[in-house]
Design brief:
The protein is mainly beta. The chain is built from 1 helix and 8 strands; from the N terminus they run H-E-E-E-E-E-E-E-E. The chain has a 5-stranded antiparallel sheet. It has a 3-stranded antiparallel sheet with strand order 2-1-3. Bound molecules: zinc ion.
């Protein structure tokens, strides 16, 4: 159906790296994991062991999973269901690229509040995406 998202679109298996094991373990358990600096206390994305602001150590923590739509684009191609790619600004003040799913794509607006949801990739890995709340 035009204008809605669909679970028909296959989600590619994410690349796994040893340093991101806690991220994917968190996703499997329904927690959206980000890293926070132990010195300046700022969160960042993508996850890095050293803070990109002050180069101190960072640690994993479960984020709120809530944020807002910073900007977005709806991709429409004749060979697949339409889907939405968006930059989400989490309440932890990190900006990340993700997908908006499970809602009317035509109703998405910049500034909409979103909540993380986890969708299974083709290999069973749970991948965090967002839905409008
Ligand atoms: Zn820092």
């Amino acid at each position: 159906m035009i204008g809605t998202n669909s679970s028909i679109r296959a989600i590619p298996a994410p690349e796994r790296h040893p340093e991101n094991v806690p991220f994917w373990e968190g996703s499997q358990a329904g927690r959206f994991m980000i890293r926070r600096c132990t010195a300046c206390r700022r969160s960042h994305w993508y996850p890095r062991p050293l803070c990109p602001f002050c180069l101190a150590e960072s640690h994993w923590e479960a984020a709120s999973g809530r944020g807002e739509v910073h900007t977005f684009s709806i991709i429409r191609r004749p060979d697949m269901q339409p889907y939405c790619i968006a930059y989400i600004r989490l309440d932890e003040d990190v900006l990340m690229l993700s997908n908006i799913v499970d809602c009317n794509l035509d109703a998405i607006r910049i500034g909409d509040r979103v909540q993380v949801v986890f969708k299974a990739a083709v290999d069973g890995t749970m991948v965090p995406m967002f839905t409008v709340i």
